[in-house]
Amino acid sequence: MNLKEKLQKALLDARAICEQAEKENRDFTPEERQQVAGYMEEAKTLKAQLKAAEGDAALRAAVADFAAELGAQPDPVQAAIIKGTLGERFVNAPEFQAWIKSVAPEGRIPERSALLSPPVMFKSLFGRKDLVTGESDTSAGAFVQTDYTGIYEPLGRYPLNVLGLVSRRTTTSDLVEFVRQTVRVQQAAVVAEANVTDYTGATGQESGEKPEGSVGFEKVTSAVKTIAVWVPATRRALSDAAQIRGIIDQELRDDLDEEFEDQILNGDGVGENFTGIMNTANILTQAFDTDILTTIRKARTNLAVNGRSRPTAIVLHPNDMETVDLLEDDQGRFYFGGPIDGGVQRIWRVPAVESESIDEGTALMGDFRKAVVWDREQANIQVSNSHEDFFIRNMVAILAEMRAAFGVIRPTAFCVIDLESGS
Fold it and tell me: Over the Cα atoms of the chain, what is R_g?
Protein backbone atom coordinates (compact mmCIF):
# COMPACT_ATOMS: atom_id res chain seq x y z
CA MET A 1 0.00 0.00 0.00
CA ASN A 2 1.54 3.33 -1.10
CA LEU A 3 1.55 6.59 0.89
CA LYS A 4 -1.52 7.96 -0.84
CA GLU A 5 -3.58 4.85 -0.15
CA LYS A 6 -2.47 4.82 3.50
CA LEU A 7 -3.47 8.47 3.88
CA GLN A 8 -6.86 7.82 2.34
CA LYS A 9 -7.47 4.86 4.65
CA ALA A 10 -6.57 6.86 7.79
CA LEU A 11 -8.94 9.67 6.83
CA LEU A 12 -11.78 7.30 5.91
CA ASP A 13 -11.40 5.40 9.22
CA ALA A 14 -11.59 8.68 11.16
CA ARG A 15 -14.59 9.83 9.17
CA ALA A 16 -16.42 6.54 9.80
CA ILE A 17 -16.18 7.10 13.57
CA CYS A 18 -17.44 10.69 13.21
CA GLU A 19 -20.39 9.63 11.07
CA GLN A 20 -21.36 6.90 13.54
CA ALA A 21 -21.38 9.39 16.44
CA GLU A 22 -23.45 11.89 14.42
CA LYS A 23 -25.89 9.17 13.36
CA GLU A 24 -26.47 8.24 17.02
CA ASN A 25 -26.65 11.94 17.99
CA ARG A 26 -23.93 11.67 20.64
CA ASP A 27 -20.39 12.75 21.49
CA PHE A 28 -17.36 10.52 21.05
CA THR A 29 -16.61 7.84 23.64
CA PRO A 30 -13.13 8.10 25.23
CA GLU A 31 -11.99 5.18 23.07
CA GLU A 32 -13.36 6.78 19.88
CA ARG A 33 -11.79 10.12 20.74
CA GLN A 34 -8.39 8.41 21.13
CA GLN A 35 -8.84 6.51 17.86
CA VAL A 36 -9.77 9.65 15.89
CA ALA A 37 -6.77 11.53 17.34
CA GLY A 38 -4.51 8.63 16.33
CA TYR A 39 -5.87 8.50 12.79
CA MET A 40 -5.44 12.25 12.37
CA GLU A 41 -1.85 12.12 13.66
CA GLU A 42 -1.12 9.28 11.24
CA ALA A 43 -2.72 11.25 8.38
CA LYS A 44 -0.62 14.29 9.27
CA THR A 45 2.58 12.25 9.11
CA LEU A 46 1.59 10.53 5.86
CA LYS A 47 0.59 13.84 4.28
CA ALA A 48 4.04 15.28 5.08
CA GLN A 49 5.75 12.21 3.60
CA LEU A 50 3.55 12.35 0.50
CA LYS A 51 4.28 16.04 0.04
CA ALA A 52 8.01 15.39 0.31
CA ALA A 53 7.81 12.57 -2.23
CA GLU A 54 5.80 14.72 -4.63
CA GLY A 55 8.36 17.49 -4.21
CA ASP A 56 11.18 15.14 -5.11
CA ALA A 57 9.36 13.98 -8.24
CA ALA A 58 8.63 17.56 -9.26
CA LEU A 59 12.29 18.49 -8.76
CA ARG A 60 13.45 15.61 -10.92
CA ALA A 61 10.95 16.59 -13.60
CA ALA A 62 12.18 20.19 -13.52
CA VAL A 63 15.78 19.02 -14.02
CA ALA A 64 14.72 16.91 -16.98
CA ASP A 65 12.71 19.79 -18.48
CA PHE A 66 15.67 22.15 -18.16
CA ALA A 67 17.94 19.60 -19.84
CA ALA A 68 15.50 19.25 -22.71
CA GLU A 69 15.29 23.02 -23.03
CA LEU A 70 19.08 23.13 -23.51
CA GLY A 71 18.93 20.43 -26.13
CA ALA A 72 20.43 17.76 -23.84
CA GLN A 73 19.02 14.27 -23.63
CA PRO A 74 18.10 12.93 -20.22
CA ASP A 75 19.85 9.80 -19.17
CA PRO A 76 17.86 6.53 -19.14
CA VAL A 77 17.33 6.71 -15.35
CA GLN A 78 15.86 10.23 -15.53
CA ALA A 79 13.68 9.24 -18.47
CA ALA A 80 12.31 6.33 -16.49
CA ILE A 81 11.57 8.60 -13.53
CA ILE A 82 9.59 11.19 -15.46
CA LYS A 83 7.96 8.79 -17.94
CA GLY A 84 4.28 9.51 -18.01
CA THR A 85 4.55 12.57 -15.76
CA LEU A 86 3.23 16.00 -16.51
CA GLY A 87 6.78 17.16 -17.29
CA GLU A 88 7.24 14.47 -19.93
CA ARG A 89 3.91 15.27 -21.54
CA PHE A 90 4.78 18.97 -21.53
CA VAL A 91 8.24 18.68 -23.15
CA ASN A 92 6.92 16.23 -25.75
CA ALA A 93 3.92 18.39 -26.66
CA PRO A 94 4.00 19.70 -30.27
CA GLU A 95 3.41 23.27 -29.06
CA PHE A 96 6.49 23.17 -26.82
CA GLN A 97 8.69 21.39 -29.38
CA ALA A 98 7.88 23.99 -32.04
CA TRP A 99 8.56 26.84 -29.64
CA ILE A 100 11.90 25.50 -28.34
CA LYS A 101 13.14 25.04 -31.90
CA SER A 102 12.25 28.66 -32.68
CA VAL A 103 14.11 30.12 -29.67
CA ALA A 104 17.03 27.66 -29.66
CA PRO A 105 17.58 26.53 -33.28
CA GLU A 106 21.11 25.37 -32.44
CA GLY A 107 20.17 23.76 -29.15
CA ARG A 108 21.20 26.73 -27.03
CA ILE A 109 19.10 29.60 -25.76
CA PRO A 110 20.73 33.01 -26.30
CA GLU A 111 21.68 34.89 -23.12
CA ARG A 112 19.46 37.78 -21.96
CA SER A 113 16.64 36.66 -24.20
CA ALA A 114 13.04 37.07 -23.02
CA LEU A 115 11.24 33.74 -22.97
CA LEU A 116 7.50 32.99 -22.88
CA SER A 117 6.36 29.58 -24.00
CA PRO A 118 2.91 29.00 -25.47
CA PRO A 119 0.30 27.38 -23.19
CA VAL A 120 0.05 23.60 -23.45
CA MET A 121 -3.44 22.28 -22.74
CA PHE A 122 -4.12 18.89 -21.09
CA LYS A 123 -7.45 17.14 -20.72
CA SER A 124 -6.22 15.60 -17.48
CA LEU A 125 -3.19 16.32 -15.34
CA PHE A 126 -2.62 12.75 -14.24
CA GLY A 127 -4.50 10.64 -16.75
CA ARG A 128 -7.94 9.11 -16.47
CA LYS A 129 -6.96 6.42 -13.97
CA ASP A 130 -5.29 8.84 -11.56
CA LEU A 131 -7.68 11.79 -11.91
CA VAL A 132 -7.53 13.96 -8.78
CA THR A 133 -10.92 15.43 -7.92
CA GLY A 134 -12.11 17.51 -5.00
CA GLU A 135 -15.49 15.73 -5.11
CA SER A 136 -14.12 12.34 -4.05
CA ASP A 137 -13.25 11.48 -0.45
CA THR A 138 -10.67 9.01 -1.76
CA SER A 139 -8.87 11.66 -3.81
CA ALA A 140 -8.12 15.36 -3.28
CA GLY A 141 -11.47 15.72 -1.54
CA ALA A 142 -9.85 14.14 1.51
CA PHE A 143 -7.86 17.37 1.94
CA VAL A 144 -10.76 19.78 1.46
CA GLN A 145 -11.39 21.93 4.53
CA THR A 146 -14.91 23.33 4.92
CA ASP A 147 -15.14 27.11 5.07
CA TYR A 148 -17.77 27.83 7.73
CA THR A 149 -19.13 31.24 6.81
CA GLY A 150 -21.48 31.68 9.76
CA ILE A 151 -24.30 32.62 7.37
CA TYR A 152 -27.69 31.29 8.46
CA GLU A 153 -30.88 31.72 6.48
CA PRO A 154 -34.09 30.59 8.23
CA LEU A 155 -37.10 29.28 6.35
CA GLY A 156 -38.98 32.46 7.14
CA ARG A 157 -42.24 33.22 8.88
CA TYR A 158 -45.21 35.37 7.94
CA PRO A 159 -45.21 38.79 9.63
CA LEU A 160 -47.28 38.93 12.82
CA ASN A 161 -49.56 41.93 12.42
CA VAL A 162 -52.39 41.35 14.90
CA LEU A 163 -50.11 41.44 17.95
CA GLY A 164 -49.21 44.99 17.03
CA LEU A 165 -52.86 46.08 16.93
CA VAL A 166 -54.08 45.07 20.39
CA SER A 167 -53.48 46.93 23.65
CA ARG A 168 -50.62 45.65 25.82
CA ARG A 169 -50.54 45.91 29.59
CA THR A 170 -48.85 44.05 32.43
CA THR A 171 -50.03 42.08 35.42
CA THR A 172 -48.40 40.56 38.49
CA SER A 173 -51.26 38.15 39.19
CA ASP A 174 -52.37 34.88 37.64
CA LEU A 175 -55.93 36.23 37.28
CA VAL A 176 -57.04 39.42 35.56
CA GLU A 177 -60.46 40.89 36.31
CA PHE A 178 -62.28 43.64 34.44
CA VAL A 179 -65.85 44.93 34.21
CA ARG A 180 -67.67 44.83 30.91
CA GLN A 181 -70.86 46.82 30.28
CA THR A 182 -73.72 44.71 28.95
CA VAL A 183 -76.58 47.26 28.86
CA ARG A 184 -76.21 50.94 28.11
CA VAL A 185 -78.48 53.68 29.47
CA GLN A 186 -81.10 54.55 26.81
CA GLN A 187 -83.98 56.05 28.84
CA ALA A 188 -83.16 59.76 28.63
CA ALA A 189 -86.14 61.93 27.55
CA VAL A 190 -87.35 65.51 27.53
CA VAL A 191 -89.17 66.31 30.79
CA ALA A 192 -91.75 69.05 31.32
CA GLU A 193 -91.81 71.10 34.50
CA ALA A 194 -94.24 69.89 37.23
CA ASN A 195 -97.45 71.99 37.54
CA VAL A 196 -99.24 70.16 40.37
CA THR A 197 -98.33 69.09 43.85
CA ASP A 198 -100.21 65.81 43.80
CA TYR A 199 -100.01 64.24 40.38
CA THR A 200 -103.09 62.11 39.53
CA GLY A 201 -102.68 61.76 35.79
CA ALA A 202 -105.51 64.09 34.97
CA THR A 203 -105.51 65.93 31.70
CA GLY A 204 -103.17 68.89 31.71
CA GLN A 205 -101.20 67.75 34.73
CA GLU A 206 -97.39 67.45 34.49
CA SER A 207 -95.62 65.40 37.12
CA GLY A 208 -92.12 66.58 36.22
CA GLU A 209 -90.83 63.05 37.04
CA LYS A 210 -87.46 62.22 35.50
CA PRO A 211 -87.08 58.85 33.74
CA GLU A 212 -84.97 56.23 35.47
CA GLY A 213 -82.17 54.74 33.43
CA SER A 214 -81.01 51.13 33.49
CA VAL A 215 -77.55 49.82 32.94
CA GLY A 216 -75.99 46.37 33.12
CA PHE A 217 -72.46 45.14 33.88
CA GLU A 218 -70.67 41.85 34.13
CA LYS A 219 -67.45 40.92 35.84
CA VAL A 220 -65.06 39.06 33.58
CA THR A 221 -62.08 37.07 34.84
CA SER A 222 -59.30 36.06 32.49
CA ALA A 223 -56.71 33.55 33.62
CA VAL A 224 -53.04 33.83 32.77
CA LYS A 225 -52.12 31.10 30.28
CA THR A 226 -48.75 29.58 29.43
CA ILE A 227 -47.46 29.05 25.90
CA ALA A 228 -44.28 26.99 25.67
CA VAL A 229 -42.07 24.99 23.31
CA TRP A 230 -38.71 23.22 23.69
CA VAL A 231 -36.10 21.57 21.48
CA PRO A 232 -33.27 19.15 22.28
CA ALA A 233 -29.62 19.94 21.52
CA THR A 234 -26.20 18.57 22.41
CA ARG A 235 -23.93 20.41 24.81
CA ARG A 236 -21.27 20.16 22.16
CA ALA A 237 -23.47 21.99 19.65
CA LEU A 238 -24.02 24.85 22.10
CA SER A 239 -20.36 25.17 23.05
CA ASP A 240 -18.82 24.64 19.61
CA ALA A 241 -21.25 26.75 17.59
CA ALA A 242 -22.34 29.82 19.51
CA GLN A 243 -24.66 30.95 16.72
CA ILE A 244 -26.78 27.80 17.21
CA ARG A 245 -27.95 29.20 20.53
CA GLY A 246 -29.05 32.44 18.90
CA ILE A 247 -30.82 30.58 16.12
CA ILE A 248 -32.69 28.39 18.56
CA ASP A 249 -33.64 31.36 20.71
CA GLN A 250 -35.06 33.22 17.71
CA GLU A 251 -36.89 30.19 16.33
CA LEU A 252 -38.46 29.42 19.69
CA ARG A 253 -39.54 33.01 20.32
CA ASP A 254 -41.01 33.31 16.83
CA ASP A 255 -42.97 30.10 17.38
CA LEU A 256 -44.37 31.45 20.66
CA ASP A 257 -45.53 34.65 18.95
CA GLU A 258 -47.14 32.75 16.07
CA GLU A 259 -49.12 30.61 18.48
CA PHE A 260 -50.09 33.64 20.57
CA GLU A 261 -51.41 35.54 17.53
CA ASP A 262 -53.44 32.49 16.50
CA GLN A 263 -54.86 32.23 20.02
CA ILE A 264 -55.79 35.93 20.09
CA LEU A 265 -57.84 35.47 16.94
CA ASN A 266 -59.08 31.87 17.08
CA GLY A 267 -58.72 30.53 20.63
CA ASP A 268 -61.85 28.59 21.60
CA GLY A 269 -61.52 28.96 25.38
CA VAL A 270 -61.50 25.19 25.89
CA GLY A 271 -58.95 23.86 28.38
CA GLU A 272 -55.83 26.01 28.38
CA ASN A 273 -56.77 27.85 25.19
CA PHE A 274 -57.42 31.58 25.27
CA THR A 275 -60.83 32.86 24.23
CA GLY A 276 -59.96 34.64 21.01
CA ILE A 277 -61.77 37.55 19.43
CA MET A 278 -63.54 35.37 16.86
CA ASN A 279 -65.05 33.21 19.62
CA THR A 280 -65.97 35.98 22.06
CA ALA A 281 -69.68 36.20 22.80
CA ASN A 282 -71.72 39.13 21.45
CA ILE A 283 -69.31 40.29 18.75
CA LEU A 284 -71.07 41.56 15.62
CA THR A 285 -71.35 39.67 12.34
CA GLN A 286 -71.79 40.76 8.75
CA ALA A 287 -73.19 38.44 6.07
CA PHE A 288 -71.97 38.54 2.47
CA ASP A 289 -73.76 41.17 0.39
CA THR A 290 -73.30 41.57 -3.40
CA ASP A 291 -69.48 41.58 -3.52
CA ILE A 292 -66.44 41.77 -1.25
CA LEU A 293 -66.19 45.57 -1.20
CA THR A 294 -69.89 46.08 -0.55
CA THR A 295 -69.76 43.55 2.29
CA ILE A 296 -66.79 45.24 3.96
CA ARG A 297 -68.46 48.65 3.72
CA LYS A 298 -71.64 47.32 5.34
CA ALA A 299 -69.53 45.84 8.14
CA ARG A 300 -68.14 49.29 8.87
CA THR A 301 -71.69 50.65 9.05
CA ASN A 302 -72.63 47.77 11.33
CA LEU A 303 -69.83 48.71 13.73
CA ALA A 304 -70.84 52.37 13.69
CA VAL A 305 -74.58 51.82 14.22
CA ASN A 306 -74.68 48.74 16.41
CA GLY A 307 -71.25 48.77 17.99
CA ARG A 308 -70.81 52.50 18.44
CA SER A 309 -67.21 51.89 17.34
CA ARG A 310 -64.75 53.30 14.87
CA PRO A 311 -62.55 50.50 13.47
CA THR A 312 -58.77 50.79 13.69
CA ALA A 313 -58.04 47.90 11.30
CA ILE A 314 -59.42 45.08 9.20
CA VAL A 315 -57.61 41.73 9.20
CA LEU A 316 -57.71 39.56 6.07
CA HIS A 317 -56.01 36.38 4.90
CA PRO A 318 -53.25 37.09 2.31
CA ASN A 319 -55.32 35.39 -0.43
CA ASP A 320 -58.29 37.65 0.31
CA MET A 321 -56.02 40.69 0.34
CA GLU A 322 -54.79 39.66 -3.10
CA THR A 323 -58.39 39.48 -4.31
CA VAL A 324 -59.00 43.03 -3.10
CA ASP A 325 -55.77 44.36 -4.63
CA LEU A 326 -56.61 42.89 -8.05
CA LEU A 327 -60.13 44.32 -8.28
CA GLU A 328 -60.62 46.44 -11.42
CA ASP A 329 -63.27 48.77 -12.77
CA ASP A 330 -64.97 48.41 -16.17
CA GLN A 331 -61.97 50.03 -17.87
CA GLY A 332 -59.41 47.66 -16.38
CA ARG A 333 -58.09 50.11 -13.79
CA PHE A 334 -57.22 48.85 -10.31
CA TYR A 335 -59.43 50.22 -7.58
CA PHE A 336 -56.53 50.37 -5.13
CA GLY A 337 -53.80 51.98 -7.21
CA GLY A 338 -52.24 48.87 -8.71
CA PRO A 339 -48.71 47.57 -8.29
CA ILE A 340 -47.00 50.98 -8.10
CA ASP A 341 -49.19 52.34 -5.32
CA GLY A 342 -47.41 52.68 -1.98
CA GLY A 343 -48.30 53.54 1.57
CA VAL A 344 -50.67 51.86 4.01
CA GLN A 345 -53.30 49.68 2.39
CA ARG A 346 -56.80 50.89 3.27
CA ILE A 347 -60.26 49.58 2.47
CA TRP A 348 -63.02 52.13 2.94
CA ARG A 349 -60.50 54.27 4.85
CA VAL A 350 -59.79 51.46 7.33
CA PRO A 351 -56.16 50.23 7.51
CA ALA A 352 -55.95 46.67 6.19
CA VAL A 353 -53.44 44.10 7.52
CA GLU A 354 -52.73 40.52 6.51
CA SER A 355 -52.54 37.48 8.78
CA GLU A 356 -52.30 33.79 8.02
CA SER A 357 -54.04 33.12 11.33
CA ILE A 358 -57.44 34.18 10.00
CA ASP A 359 -59.38 31.80 7.78
CA GLU A 360 -59.58 32.53 4.08
CA GLY A 361 -63.01 33.91 3.19
CA THR A 362 -63.40 35.59 6.57
CA ALA A 363 -62.29 39.04 7.75
CA LEU A 364 -62.29 40.76 11.12
CA MET A 365 -62.90 44.50 11.43
CA GLY A 366 -62.88 46.35 14.70
CA ASP A 367 -61.38 48.70 17.21
CA PHE A 368 -58.45 46.53 18.29
CA ARG A 369 -57.75 48.81 21.23
CA LYS A 370 -60.71 47.05 22.88
CA ALA A 371 -58.75 43.79 22.97
CA VAL A 372 -56.12 43.68 25.71
CA VAL A 373 -53.10 41.48 26.40
CA TRP A 374 -51.83 41.42 29.98
CA ASP A 375 -48.20 40.26 30.03
CA ARG A 376 -47.35 38.18 33.10
CA GLU A 377 -43.98 36.89 31.89
CA GLN A 378 -42.66 37.84 28.48
CA ALA A 379 -40.82 35.25 26.40
CA ASN A 380 -37.83 33.74 28.21
CA ILE A 381 -35.38 30.96 27.44
CA GLN A 382 -34.08 28.28 29.81
CA VAL A 383 -31.60 25.44 29.32
CA SER A 384 -31.48 22.27 31.42
CA ASN A 385 -29.98 18.79 31.21
CA SER A 386 -32.43 17.32 33.75
CA HIS A 387 -34.85 15.99 31.12
CA GLU A 388 -34.98 12.17 31.13
CA ASP A 389 -31.45 10.82 30.49
CA PHE A 390 -30.09 14.03 28.96
CA PHE A 391 -27.46 14.39 31.73
CA ILE A 392 -25.63 11.16 30.86
CA ARG A 393 -26.03 11.77 27.12
CA ASN A 394 -24.58 15.29 27.18
CA MET A 395 -27.89 16.65 25.91
CA VAL A 396 -29.81 19.74 26.95
CA ALA A 397 -33.41 20.86 26.61
CA ILE A 398 -33.83 24.46 25.48
CA LEU A 399 -37.21 25.75 26.67
CA ALA A 400 -38.99 28.94 25.67
CA GLU A 401 -42.19 30.04 27.36
CA MET A 402 -44.37 33.06 27.96
CA ARG A 403 -47.34 33.76 30.24
CA ALA A 404 -50.13 36.19 29.52
CA ALA A 405 -53.86 36.84 29.84
CA PHE A 406 -56.15 38.09 27.10
CA GLY A 407 -59.61 39.59 27.02
CA VAL A 408 -62.02 41.57 24.82
CA ILE A 409 -63.31 44.41 26.94
CA ARG A 410 -65.97 45.46 24.40
CA PRO A 411 -67.18 42.64 22.12
CA THR A 412 -69.38 44.92 19.99
CA ALA A 413 -66.26 46.79 18.89
CA PHE A 414 -65.53 43.86 16.56
CA CYS A 415 -67.34 42.45 13.53
CA VAL A 416 -66.67 39.12 11.80
CA ILE A 417 -67.23 39.47 8.04
CA ASP A 418 -68.23 36.71 5.63
CA LEU A 419 -66.42 37.51 2.36
CA GLU A 420 -67.80 34.65 0.27
CA SER A 421 -71.21 34.21 -1.28
CA GLY A 422 -73.16 31.18 -0.06
CA SER A 423 -70.78 30.43 2.81
Answer: 41
* DSSP states of 149-183: -------------GGGTSEEEE-SSSEEEEEEEEE
C-alpha closest to that of 8 among 388, 160, 16, 359: 16
Gap between the Cα atoms of 400 and 381, Å rounded: 5
Contact 237, 146 (CB under 8 A): no
pLDDT in tens, 47-93: 777 777 766 666 565 555 555 555 545 445 444 444 555 566 666 77
Backbone dihedral angles phi then psi of residue 383, each to the nearest 5 degrees: -125, 135
Residue 77's CB is within 10 A of a number of other CB atoms, namely 8
Q: Which residue ranges form the domains of the chain, and what is each CATH number? A: 3-143 (no CATH), 162-174+224-418 (3.30.2400.10), 183-219 (no CATH)
Q: What is the pLDDT of residues 251-285, one digit of tens each?
A: 888 889 899 999 999 999 999 999 999 999 999 99
Helix (H, G, I), strand (E, B) or coil at 82: helix
The crossing angle, in degrees rounded to 10, of helices 3-23 and 30-69 is 150
